[in-house]
């Protein structure tokens, strides 16, 4: 197991609501990347944070936003939830933007 | 845009035998990384093996090895002496060298190990 943790494990929300997912990075890691993994698909890159700044973003709308704290933990916020947002959300931490990524167990989000 | 394709949704192999998982990718870049990740059921995604495009030698990690064909844009994973613990989803992933270090993933191959 990696030292990356995510909370909560599972979450059920209603369409239109907002959700916050949390990621605690492995000790010594300053970079966090977030991915969305729909059922039966590979992960899709949402964005990456490096030293509290967004360092790159995938093809996701602005209602997906993030934050990285001074201790390098991170949050993913999704506003105005849609049914298609139902997925496993993975975070991965690393010691730099081009270093090996270590993944957390994910948060399973269900939007009804 | 870069893409990664895994054409085998599911593969099965007898325990102790060898299996090869296929991956092809498309990119116009000359420098990049390729990865195989393993995602066991309800467990964390872990890195199995990585290959730098500038290296001609195929990467090897114990029972796992790759066949990297840069001109053909092919990157297959060979698992030797398959074990029950190898059962998982296997994902091929690509990362360009340079800014925006996102991983681009294939759809995955489910590997079943028959005892």
Could you please describe the fold and organization of this structure?
Chain A has 112 residues and is mostly beta strands. Helices cover 0% and strands 51% of the residues of chain A. Chain A has no helices and 11 strands. Chain A has strands at residues 5-7, 10-13, 19-24, 31-37, 44-50, 53-57, 64-68, 74-78, 87-94, 102-103, 107-111. Chain A is globular. The termini of chain A are far apart. Chain B is globular, with a radius of gyration of 14 Å. In chain B, strand 5 and strand 6 (46-52) form a beta hairpin. Chain B is mainly beta. Chain B has no helices and 12 strands. The relative contact order of chain B is 0.34. The mean pLDDT of chain B is 93. The N and C termini of chain B lie far apart (41 Å). Classes of the chains: A mainly beta (112), B mainly beta (115).
Descriptive labels:
heterodimer, A: 112 residues, mainly beta, seven-stranded mixed beta sheet, four-stranded antiparallel beta sheet, B: 115 residues, six-stranded mixed beta sheet, 12 strands
């Amino acid at each position: 197991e990696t030292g990356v943790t995510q909370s909560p494990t599972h979450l059920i929300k209603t369409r239109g609501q907002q959700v916050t997912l949390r990621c605690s990075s492995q000790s010594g890691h300053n970079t966090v990347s977030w991915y969305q993994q729909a059922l039966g698909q590979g992960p899709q890159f949402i964005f990456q944070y490096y030293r509290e700044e967004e360092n790159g973003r995938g093809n996701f709308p602005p209602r997906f936003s993030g934050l990285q704290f001074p201790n390098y933990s991170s949050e993913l916020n999704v506003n105005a939830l849609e049914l298609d947002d139902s997925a496993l959300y993975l975070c991965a931490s690393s010691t730099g933007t081009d270093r090996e990524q270590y993944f957390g167990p994910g948060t399973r989000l269900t939007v009804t | 845009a870069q893409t990664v394709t895994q054409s085998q949704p599911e593969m099965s192999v007898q325990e102790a035998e060898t299996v090869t998982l296929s991956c092809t990718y498309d990119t116009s870049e000359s420098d990049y990384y390729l990865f195989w990740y393993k995602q066991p059921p309800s467990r964390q995604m872990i890195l199995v093996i990585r290959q730098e495009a500038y290296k001609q030698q195929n990467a090897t990690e114990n029972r796992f090895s790759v066949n990297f064909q840069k001109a053909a844009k092919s990157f297959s994973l060979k698992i030797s002496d398959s074990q029950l613990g190898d059962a998982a989803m296997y994902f091929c992933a690509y990362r360009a060298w340079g800014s925006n270090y996102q991983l681009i993933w294939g759809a995955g191959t489910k590997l079943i190990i028959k005892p």
